[in-house]
Design brief:
It is a single chain. This protein is of the alpha/beta class. It has helices at about 1-15, 20-40, 45-50, 55-65, and strands at about 80-85, 90-95, 100-105, 110-115, 125-130, 130-135, 155-160, 165-175, 175-180, 185-190, 195-200, 200-210, 215-230, 235-240, 245-250, 255-270, 275-285, 290-295, 305-310, 315. The chain has a domain at about 1-65.
């Protein structure tokens, strides 16, 4: 039983289930196998009864694909604008300062924009033309943004669930932003001071530029990820990066939990990378004093392509 459960655990980890999900599955199978052994089944008979660990893990992962992040409740918000979407894809361009925003899915074929707060929303520029949705803060004194933090305005933008977002350009200052359950071909985020949450998204190309704000990315699938940060920290939890991951940081740290990628390239002045169950195939470090520390339970070969640093280290244990 012990070997079967160990093999199952390894296969579940490869399928990128969360640690909590894996522990629940292992506990359930341990109880079922114990009952089977009490009935006199051998280890080979157990495999025949429950299935090979790889097959079991793949089936469980397939059943888990429809899990989505819990969406914001809009009951207490004001529905401001709706736009009918006739296509199966669209583009989004948002520029805000001090207003918080959440992107999530709608069951309808409409873009729905909700808000709460004291600011006068009629001063904001909003439109949906030529299959592009735009939302911008009011212009003032030649700048694109008004400075009204005291207004505490928050938007919720719901996009039709059947729609793929071809390009999403998101520029914010002093705004907290959340992305839930989206499919985005090209996501470009530039944020200063505000925090960022990315949860249960599928993204092909993701370029993130952040100054001082923290970023959390969880339960998501990304093809190519390019991260540039100054002092904010970035955490990835249960993220599959099927291509390359490049991280540029001045002093911000990067924490990686249950993450895979092809090539991981780190450029840093003093920021560190701490990885647990982080499985890149190759690692490159260019830094002044930043370190890369990787601690994995499963032993996989990780190639150190290059280390160019004054005092930084690459530690894989």
């Amino acid at each position: 039983m012990k070997k079967y459960l160990e093999d199952l655990r390894q296969e579940l980890q490869k399928q990128k289930l969360t640690s909590k999900e894996i522990e629940e599955i292992i506990a359930d199978h341990e109880e079922m196998i114990r009952t089977a052994m009490e009935e006199g089944l051998s280890e080979e008979q157990i495999k025949a009864k429950f299935g090979q660990p790889k097959q079991v893990a793949e089936e469980l992962a397939d059943n888990n694909e429809d899990v989505v992040a819990e969406q914001d409740d809009n009951d207490d918000l004001v529905l401001w604008k709706t736009y009918q979407v006739e296509h199966d894809s669209l583009s989004v361009d948002v520029n805000l300062i001090s207003e918080d925003i959440t992107y999530q899915l709608s069951d309808s074929s409409e873009i729905k924009v909700y808000y709460e707060g004291k600011a006068k929303v009629e001063k904001y520029e909003i439109s949906y033309e030529k299959n592009e949705f735009r939302l911008s803060a009011p212009k003032r004194l030649g700048f694109n943004f008004s400075f009204g933090k005291g207004d505490d305005l928050r938007f919720v933008v719901e996009l039709p669930k059947h729609v793929v977002v071809k390009e999403l350009k998101h520029v914010t200052i002093s705004s907290d932003s959340t992305f839930k359950n989206l499919k985005v071909n090209d996501l470009k985020v530039n944020t200063t001071s505000g925090d960022l949450v990315i949860t249960h998204n599928q993204i092909e190309k993701f370029k993130l530029n952040s100054v001082s704000g923290d970023c959390s990315i969880e339960d998501s699938k990304i093809v190519e990820f390019n991260l540039s940060q100054v002092s904010g920290d970035t955490e990835l939890d249960h993220v599959t990066i099927s291509g390359n991951f490049k991280a540029n940081t001045v002093s911000g740290d990067v924490e990686l939990n249950d993450v895979t990628c092809e090539d991981f390239e780190m450029h840093a002045v003093s920021g560190d990378v701490d990885g647990k169950e982080f499985y890149p195939k190759k690692v490159t470090l260019k830094s002044v004093s930043g370190d890369v520390n990787i601690k994995n339970q499963e032993k996989r070969y990780i190639e150190i392509v290059k280390k160019s640093t004054l005092s930084g280290e690459i530690n894989i244990g």
